[in-house]
Structures are given as structure tokens and as C-alpha cells.
Design brief:
alpha/beta, Rossmann fold, UDP-galactose 4-epimerase, domain 1, seven-stranded parallel beta sheet, binds nicotinamide-adenine-dinucleotide, binds 2-acetamido-2-deoxy-beta-D-glucopyranose
């Protein structure tokens, strides 16, 4: 059995590759691809013989054709590559090419080379624009009207994933991820980068900038839960989805204030003091357009896992520093 992950040089892809290698039998191979050759995740080094690292620019149809071939079918394809929210707001054409055109081409290439293949597409809460204060969104009570190009591109692909699945071209699942926090590695181009920066950077002894107000509420999920749920997404029976292949993944509603309190509780006053408040209107505008509260009954019915508390999340993150 063979699994493909695109965008696997990125944070989630690296963690997912390690998680899949740890949980799948020795006969399963995982191909990870990115625009630069993706690294072997450090935590997966003992499985390196089951991992194939491929450099491919997915905006090139030729490179996609070489990666996805009828003579080497995948059991599941995880589509994770992309230009994140601030990046695709800043460079419209790049976002369209990578998030929309390349992904559409991949879906078509899968349709003609390995019809019926399972596809897990990582969508985002950014498919929703702002909801009235206090409103709790689920998949059917609020129309997804994105307020960013990133969210629009995600929603278009979700629509294709549902239609291609209806037609039997693929067996798709679009999982809308909350903001993954606390994310290891470097700060990113996502408008939500600060949500991880304000915890991660102080643990490295570095300053972090908070570009939004402390009363801002966010819909987040810990990396551990995200990876468990991405792995689970493969095993949900197709019948469980009904007419739509989209599902809002479980997460946690948390205010920046609560995050900073949890940072102080686990990391101490010195680390808390490394977070500097510096308002940025452009970031704040994107972040405030996201809604912080979801009801994820649909995901729970499909067997997806609930997230851990903010304290537990930071404890898990901090455990790599001792
Ligand atoms: N991390 C989050 O908080 C979050 C939240 C919601 C949704 N998501 C979605 O989850 C997925 C993974 O997120 P992430 O945080 O790991 O993102 P990331 O930015 O770390 O990784 C994305 C990867 O896509 C690659 N990529 C960009 N252009 C490419 C191209 N032309 N060809 C091949 N690869 C290309 C990048 O090099 C990068 O490694 C994305 O689809 C993202 O939209 C993430
Ligand atoms: C969404 O919530 C409404 C009530 O507000 C309910 O009728 C509906 O079944 C829910 N849908 C899902 C998918 O949970």
C-alpha cells in the first residue's frame, strides 16, 4: 500500500508523514513531495526505508504527471500543499496557481490515473466569513462565504472534491482544520502565525509579537489532535459523509488572554514577558474575519477526536524543552 502527501515539506505534512509511518504496517510506503525536496521527519528516521522524498513543483503539469502515474497507484492522497492565508492575500496570482489551479489539475490527474482513489484535502475555517457574535457555526446552519482569496480557493476545491466524489472519480474528504497551535518550527506567512509564535518563541527564549488584541478569540487545535484526525480521515466510511464531503474538525475556542495565562502558568513570568503587543491592522483584519466557535457534532459522529485543553496543549509542546 502506498500513500502520497503533497506539501509535505511543511509543518503539518512532516508531522503527518511521521504519524502515518508509525501507525501503518511495514508494507506501507509513504511518498512525500514538496517544491523543495522534503526532509525525512526526524521522528520517522527509523522508518526511512518506507519513505520516498520527491521534489516537484505542483504548478507544473509535467511534474504532476511524473508524480501521479497509473502504474504506481496510491491508496490515499493527502493534499496539503498551498500558499497560506497572508501569502495568498499578498500575491493573488501565486495563490490561484498553487491553491486552485495545481490542486484542480491533481484531482483530474487522479481521476484519469487512479479512479476512486481516496483523497484527504486540508481545507480551513477560512471558508467562513464572520458570523454574528456568539453564533456557533456547523456545516449546515451558516453559508461559507470566505473573506479571503485563500478561503475562496479552499471552498472551490471543496466543491470539486464533493462533485468528483459524487461522480465516483475519487473518494474525497475535505477536512476544515482549525488554526494549528502550538506549531513548532519558524513563524509562517499565515495571518494566524502569532497564535503559535506567542507560545513557541518564548520557549526558545525569543521575543514574539502579538498583532491583535488580547480579547481576540480563536478556534485552534493542537498538532497532536490534528495528526490523529488526519490519520482518522482516511478510515471514515464514505457513506458517513452524505451529500457533502466537507467536515469541520474538532477544535478549541480560546482567547489570546487565556493563551497568555496558560503560557505564564506553564512557562513562567519570564516567558510571558517575551510577548510584545504590537497591533497590526492588516493581520487583525484577517483574524477578526474568522469565527472562533464551531459545533463539531458531525465530526464526532464520524469518530474524529476532540482536542485537548490549552494547558495540556502547552504542556505537550513544552515537554520537548526539558
Ligand atoms: N497550519 C494551520 O493552522 C492550518 C489551518 C487550516 C488549514 N491548513 C491547511 O493545512 C495544510 C498544511 O498546512 P501547513 O501549516 O503545513 O502549511 P505549510 O505552509 O507549512 O506547508 C505547505 C507546503 O506547500 C508547499 N508548496 C507551496 N507551493 C508549492 C508548489 N508549487 N508545489 C509543491 N509544493 C508547494 C510549501 O513549500 C510548503 O512546504 C495547508 O493546505 C493549509 O492550508 C493549515
Ligand atoms: C446545525 O445546527 C442546527 C441547529 O442550529 C441543526 O438543526 C442541524 O442539524 C445542525 N447540523 C449539523 C450538521 O450538525
Amino acid at each position: 500500500m502506498s500513500i502520497l502527501i503533497t506539501g509535505a515539506g511543511g509543518y503539518v505534512g512532516q508531522e503527518l508523514a511521521a504519524g502515518l509511518l508509525a501507525l501503518t504496517p511495514a508494507s506501507t510506503t509513504v511518498t512525500i513531495t514538496d517544491v523543495n525536496e522534503p526532509a525525512i521527519p526526524a521522528s520517522a528516521s527509523q522508518h526511512a526505508d518506507r519513505l520516498k522524498c520527491v521534489k516537484a513543483d505542483l504548478t507544473s503539469t509535467k511534474e504532476v504527471d511524473e508524480l501521479i502515474r497509473a502504474d504506481s497507484p496510491f491508496e490515499t492522497v493527502y493534499i496539503l500543499h498551498g500558499i497560506m492565508s497572508s501569502g495568498s492575500e499578498a500575491d493573488f496570482e501565486l495563490g490561484m496557481r498553487v491553491n486552485l489551479d495545481a490542486t484542480r489539475y491533481i484531482l483530474d490527474r487522479l481521476r484519469v490515473t487512479m479512479s476512486g482513489v481516496k483523497v484527504v484535502f486540508t481545507s480551513s475555517l477560512a471558508v467562513y466569513g464572520p458570523a454574528p457574535s456568539g453564533f456557533i457555526i456547523n456545516e449546515t446552519n451558516f453559508p461559507p462565504v470566505p473573506s479571503s482569496s485563500y478561503g475562496s480557493q479552499k471552498l472551490i476545491i471543496e466543491t470539486l472534491v464533493t462533485d468528483y466524489s459524487r461522480r465516483g472519480f475519487i473518494d474525497g474528504r475535505s477536512v476544515r482544520l482549525p488554526t494549528v497551535t502550538v506549531r513548532a518550527g519558524a513563524p509562517t506567512q499565515a495571518a494566524s502565525s502569532f497564535a503559535s509564535d506567542i507560545i513557541r518563541e518564548p520557549f526558545h527564549g525569543r521575543k514574539a509579537v502579538l498583532p491583535v488584541g488580547k480579547d481576540t478569540e480563536l478556534w485552534i487545535c493542537s498538532p497532536g489532535t490534528i495528526i490523529k484526525n488526519l490519520i482518522h480521515a482516511r478510515t471514515v466510511p464514505r457513506e458517513a459523509f452524505g451529500e457533502s464531503r466537507s467536515v469541520n474538525l474538532p477544535g478549541l475556542k480560546v482567547s489570546v488572554h487565556q493563551m497568555l495565562q496558560a503560557l505564564q502558568e506553564i512557562g513562567g513570568q519570564e516567558r510571558r514577558a517575551l510577548v510584545e503587543e504590537k497591533y497590526d491592522a492588516a493581520t487583525d483584519k484577517i483574524v477578526q474575519s474568522w469565527t472562533p466557535q464551531f459545533s463539531t457534532d458531525r465530526a464526532f459522529q464520524m469518530g474524529f477526536h476532540a482536542d485537548v485543553s490549552m494547558l495540556e496543549n502547552i504542556k505537550q509542546f513544552a515537554s520537548s524543552f526539558v
